[in-house]
């Protein structure tokens, strides 16, 4: 009986081990885990911050979150403020041309037509993306930007979330995860789901023991499917256990 419970427990944990997603079907990530973070020197007036303040915030995000995972070899390093203006560019693919290889460029953008949820966005804080070994994080710098009314802790968490996209992660199913698709509560630390995602892309001790990882789609990763399967297995395991106990008693 104890062996049966052990088997069911291990099965549940192995099936429900992740709900993070990736930004692409190919698992795009940086070829070198030592990634430099640069800051665009264009204006962030509407967002209420300077380039120096944004660089400090980006490094706080790196150290408080992603650089603290023992099993993930990703290392986000402090770069510099570069003379690159991404304040009004709207073609994301074209913007990657101005990013240095194996770098993430963080900057403010005032044109939401293509980058955010429409021309008059009032809710999106930022956006992050990875393409061809280059990452970009856009901070919403529109006149309607909610950034100035956001707490410092939330700003740092937001930058950390978008950095996650910029090095290859999609969204998580877990509401308490930093990579959850909507930042409501302030995630003061990474969840195991976030750490598993970083470990999966930049692992130090082998791949995560899971069968598959889905592409990001508003948090619809394998977690919901795996949770359902886990519940089914738990249900049938309970039935088997009850029959076993009944048989032993009888």
Structure commentary:
By secondary structure, this protein is an alpha/beta fold. The protein has two domains: 2-16 and 221-249; 34-201, 3-Layer(aba) Sandwich (Collagenase (Catalytic Domain)), CATH 3.40.390.10. 36% of the residues lie in helices and 14% in strands. The chain has seven helices and five strands. The protein has helices spanning 2-15, 51-64, 92-95, 112-115, 152-166, 192-201, 222-249; strands at 34-40, 75-82, 103-109, 126-131, 134-140. α2 packs across α5. The longest helix is centred in the C-terminal third of the chain and has 28 residues, at 222-249. The protein is globular, with a radius of gyration of 21 Å. The model is unreliable at 5-16, 206-212 and 217-236 (pLDDT under 50).
Descriptive tags:
single chain; globular; 250 residues; 2 domains; alpha/beta; 36% helix; five-stranded mixed beta sheet; 5 strands; Collagenase (Catalytic Domain)
Architecture blueprint of SSEs:
Elements: H1 2-15, E1 34-40, H2 51-64, E2 75-82, H3 92-95, E3 103-109, H4 112-115, E4 126-131, E5 134-140, H5 152-166, H6 192-201, H7 222-249
Parallel strand pairs: 1-2, 1-3, 3-5
Antiparallel strand pairs: 4-5
Helix pairs in contact: 1-7, 2-5
| Oligomer designation | single chain
Gap from first CA to last CA: 15 Å
Q: Architecture of the largest domain, according to CATH?
A: 3-Layer(aba) Sandwich
Task: Look at the structure and give the CATH class of the largest domain.
Answer: Alpha Beta
Number of domains: 2
Q: Main β-sheet, in a few words?
A: 5 strands, mixed
